[in-house]
C-alpha cells in the first residue's frame, strides 16, 4: 500500500518536471516551427518552406551581427579566463594587504543589477574617450565575466593539494614551470568551465551590451532587440534554429563521453 | 640558500597573478561606480551634464510618477521571486532525488534553453500569446472564451516573461541545498512520528532555507532591471525601475537622475546582501550558474 503510494508520488513528480521542461522549451519549439513558415510575420503558421534558411545567407547585417557576437565572446572570454585564473591562483595562495577589497570588487558585478554596471561603464567610457564599439563591448564583457571565472577556478583550487607544487619545486622546477606543468593541468577543468561560463554570459548578454556598444557594432542580441520593435523576420529564427541544433549536438556528444555529473 | 630565498620572496609572483585583476576591477568596477555616485550630485541643462552640485536628483526620486513605477517594479519582482520558489522547489526536489545519471541529464536540459538568446525566446512567447496565437486559438476551440483575450501587453505577461527567464537561477541553488540535505534527518523526523508535511515544514524547509534565500536574491535584483522583458511582453505599458534608468541614459538624456536611480538600487541591494550575509549566507552561492 505504501510502496504504491510512493510510486504514484514519483510518477506525479516526474510529470511535474516534464511540465516545467515544457514551459522552458515551448518558445524554442515555436521558434523552430516558425523558421519554416511561409508567412513573413510570426503570427500564424501558414505553410512549410526552407527559403529562410537560404535567405539567411544573403542577410549580411544579421550575419555580421552574429560574427560580432562570436568575436566579442571569444576575445572577452580569453581575457577573462587569463585574468581570472591568475587571480584565483594568486589569491588562494598568498595573503596580502587589500585582498578583502579585491574580494568585494569581485562580488560587485555579480550582485548589482546588470543595468547599473552597464550605465556605469557607459559613463566611464564616455569620460575616458574610449571608442564605443567592439573594443568597449569586449572590455565590458570581460568585466562581468572575470568574477565568474574566479569563482569557478576557486572551486577547483579548493580541493587542490599544495604539496604537489612544493614537490615539483623541490625537484628543481621553477615557479613558472611548476605552474604550467603541475598546477594548470590539475585545475584545467575549472578553467575550462570558467571559460565556458564566460562565453555563455557574453553571447547571451543584452543589457550591458545595450549601453556599451557604439553605432555600427551590433551584436546578435542587440540586433534582435532592434528588430523586436518592427517584427522579427523568420531568417533570425532560422539562424537561431541552426545555433540551437549545433549546441544541442555538441552538448550531447560531450555529455555522452562524460560520466561525471556537471556542476552549474 | 636558494630555497629559502624562493620561499621568502613572493612579491613578483603575487604581482603577476593579482595585479591584473586588481587594476581591472579598480578601473572598470570601482571607478565607474564612484563616477556614477559623483554624477548623481550633478545637474543637467536638459542635454549635457553640468558640473554644478545639487541634491535635486535625489529629491526627484520621490516624485509620485516614479513612486508608481517603483511600486509596479517591486510588485513584479516580488511575484517573480515567489512564483519561482513555488514552481522551482518541487522541481529541484525531484532533481535532487534522482539518480546520478538522471541528475546530470536534468541539469543539462535545464541549461540548454539558455543558449538560445532570451530575447528570441521571449519573441516565441509573443507568438504563443498574441491575439491569434496558439493559446487564444486553443482556448477558443475549447469554448472557454469566445473572443480572443489580451494576454500580451499586460502585467501578467511581464511576470510570465520574468519567471521564464529567471527560474533556472532559483532551481540551481535550491537543487544544491536540497542535494546536500542529510537524509538521516528526514528519517529521524519520520521515526519520531512526524508525518510528511510536518517533516517538510520543520526539517526540510529550514535546512534548505539558504538555497531559497540565495535564489531569491539572484532573481529579485535582476528583475528590477530587466527593462527588455517589460518592453517585449508589456509593450512598455508596465514600466520597471530598469526602464526608468534606461530612459535617463538614452532618450531622456538625464544622466544625473539616472545615476541617482542607480544609487538607490545599489543602496537597496546593499541592505539585502547584508541581511543575507548576517543570516549566514555564502557570497559565492550568488555566483553559481
Quick recap of the structure?
With 264 residues, chain A is mostly helical. Helices cover 77% and strands 0% of the residues of chain A. Chain A has two domains: 21-58 and 234-264, no CATH class; 62-232, MetI-like (MetI-like fold), CATH 1.10.3720.10.
List keywords for this structure.
A: 264 residues; mainly alpha; MetI-like fold; disordered C terminus; B: 289 residues; 14 helices; disordered N terminus
Question: What secondary-structure arrangement, pairings included, does this model have?
Answer:
The complex is a heterodimer of chains A (264) and B (289).
Chain A: H1 2-34, H2 51-55, H3 60-93, H4 99-111, H5 114-127, H6 134-158, H7 163-170, H8 175-204, H9 207-212, H10 220-230, H11 234-257
Chain B: H1 2-8, H2 11-39, E1 43-44, E2 49-50, H3 56-60, H4 64-97, H5 100-111, H6 118-129, H7 134-142, H8 155-180, H9 183-191, H10 196-207, H11 209-225, H12 227-234, H13 241-249, H14 255-278
Antiparallel strand pairs in B: 1-2
Instruction: Give the H and E element order of chain A.
Output: HHHHHHHHHHH
Over all CA atoms, what is the radius of gyration of chain B? 24 Å
Instruction: Give the domain tally of chain A.
Output: 2
Indicate the CATH architecture of the largest domain in chain A.
Answer: Orthogonal Bundle
Query: How would you describe the shape of chain A?
Result: globular
> What is the number of helices of chain B?
14
Unreliable segments of chain A (pLDDT under 50, ≥5 consecutive)? 260-264
Helix content of chain A: over 70%
Overall average pLDDT of chain A: 90
The CATH homologous superfamily of the largest domain in chain B: MetI-like
Total domains of chain B:
2
Q: What's the CATH class of the largest domain in chain A, please?
A: Mainly Alpha
Strand order of the largest sheet of chain B: 1-2
Termini distance of chain B? 47 Å
Characterize the main sheet of chain A. none
How many β-strand stretches of chain A?
0
Amino acid at each position: 500500500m505504501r510502496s504504491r503510494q510512493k510510486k504514484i508520488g514519483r510518477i506525479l513528480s516526474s510529470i511535474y518536471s516534464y511540465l516545467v521542461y515544457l514551459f522552458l522549451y515551448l518558445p524554442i519549439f515555436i521558434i523552430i516551427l516558425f523558421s519554416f513558415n511561409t508567412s513573413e510575420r510570426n503570427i500564424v503558421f501558414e505553410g512549410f518552406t526552407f527559403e529562410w534558411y537560404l535567405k539567411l545567407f544573403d542577410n549580411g547585417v544579421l550575419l555580421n551581427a552574429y560574427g560580432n557576437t562570436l568575436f566579442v565572446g571569444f576575445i572577452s572570454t580569453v581575457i577573462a579566463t587569463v585574468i581570472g585564473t591568475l587571480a584565483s591562483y594568486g589569491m588562494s595562495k598568498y595573503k596580502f594587504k587589500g585582498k578583502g577589497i579585491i574580494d568585494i570588487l569581485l562580488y560587485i558585478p555579480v550582485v548589482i543589477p546588470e543595468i547599473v554596471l552597464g550605465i556605469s561603464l557607459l559613463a566611464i567610457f564616455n569620460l575616458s574617450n574610449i571608442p564605443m564599439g567592439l573594443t568597449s563591448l569586449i572590455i565590458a564583457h570581460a568585466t562581468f565575466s572575470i568574477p565568474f571565472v574566479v569563482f569557478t577556478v576557486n572551486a577547483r583550487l579548493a580541493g587542490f593539494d599544495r604539496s604537489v607544487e612544493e614537490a615539483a619545486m623541490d625537484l628543481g622546477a621553477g615557479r613558472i614551470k611548476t605552474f604550467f606543468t603541475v598546477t594548470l593541468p590539475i585545475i584545467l577543468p575549472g578553467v575550462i568551465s570558467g571559460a565556458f561560463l564566460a562565453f555563455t554570459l557574453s553571447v547571451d548578454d543584452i543589457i550591458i551590451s545595450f549601453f556599451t556598444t557604439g553605432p555600427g557594432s551590433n551584436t546578435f542580441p542587440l540586433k534582435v532587440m532592434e528588430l523586436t520593435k518592427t517584427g522579427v523576420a523568420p531568417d533570425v529564427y532560422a539562424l537561431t534554429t541552426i545555433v540551437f541544433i549545433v549546441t544541442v549536438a555538441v552538448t550531447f556528444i560531450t555529455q555522452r563521453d562524460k560520466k561525471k555529473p556537471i556542476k552549474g | 640558500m636558494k630555497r629559502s630565498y624562493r620561499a621568502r620572496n613572493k612579491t613578483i609572483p603575487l604581482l603577476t597573478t593579482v595585479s591584473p585583476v586588481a587594476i581591472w576591477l579598480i578601473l572598470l568596477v570601482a571607478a565607474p561606480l564612484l563616477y556614477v555616485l559623483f554624477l548623481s550630485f550633478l545637474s543637467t541643462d536638459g542635454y549635457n551634464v553640468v558640473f554644478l552640485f545639487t541634491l535635486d536628483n535625489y529629491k526627484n526620486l520621490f516624485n509620485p510618477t516614479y513612486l508608481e513605477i517603483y511600486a509596479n517594479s517591486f510588485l513584479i519582482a516580488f511575484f517573480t521571486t515567489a512564483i519561482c520558489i513555488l514552481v522551482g522547489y518541487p522541481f529541484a526536489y525531484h532533481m535532487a532525488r534522482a539518480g546520478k545519471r538522471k541528475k546530470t541529464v536534468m541539469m543539462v536540459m535545464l541549461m540548454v534553453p539558455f543558449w538560445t538568446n532570451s530575447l528570441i525566446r521571449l519573441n516565441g512567447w509573443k507568438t504563443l500569446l498574441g491575439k491569434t496565437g496558439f493559446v487564444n486559438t486553443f482556448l477558443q476551440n475549447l469554448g472557454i472564451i469566445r473572443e480572443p483575450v489580451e494576454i500580451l501587453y499586460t502585467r501578467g505577461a511581464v511576470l510570465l516573461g520574468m519567471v521564464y527567464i529567471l527560474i533556472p537561477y532559483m532551481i540551481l541553488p535550491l537543487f544544491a541545498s536540497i542535494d546536500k540535505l542529510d537524509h538521516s534527518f528526514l528519517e529521524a523526523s519520520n521515526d519520531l512520528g512526524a508525518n510528511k508535511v510536518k517533516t517538510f515544514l520543520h526539517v526540510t524547509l529550514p535546512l534548505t532555507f539558504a538555497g531559497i534565500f540565495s535564489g531569491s536574491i539572484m532573481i529579485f535584483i535582476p528583475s528590477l532591471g530587466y527593462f527588455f522583458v517589460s518592453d517585449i511582453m508589456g509593450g512598455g505599458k508596465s514600466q520597471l525601475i530598469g526602464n526608468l534608468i534606461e530612459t535617463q541614459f538614452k532618450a531622456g538624456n538625464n544622466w544625473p537622475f539616472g545615476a541617482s536611480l542607480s544609487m538607490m538600487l545599489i543602496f537597496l541591494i546593499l541592505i539585502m546582501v547584508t541581511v543575507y550575509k548576517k543570516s549566514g549566507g555564502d557570497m559565492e552561492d550568488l555566483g553559481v550558474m
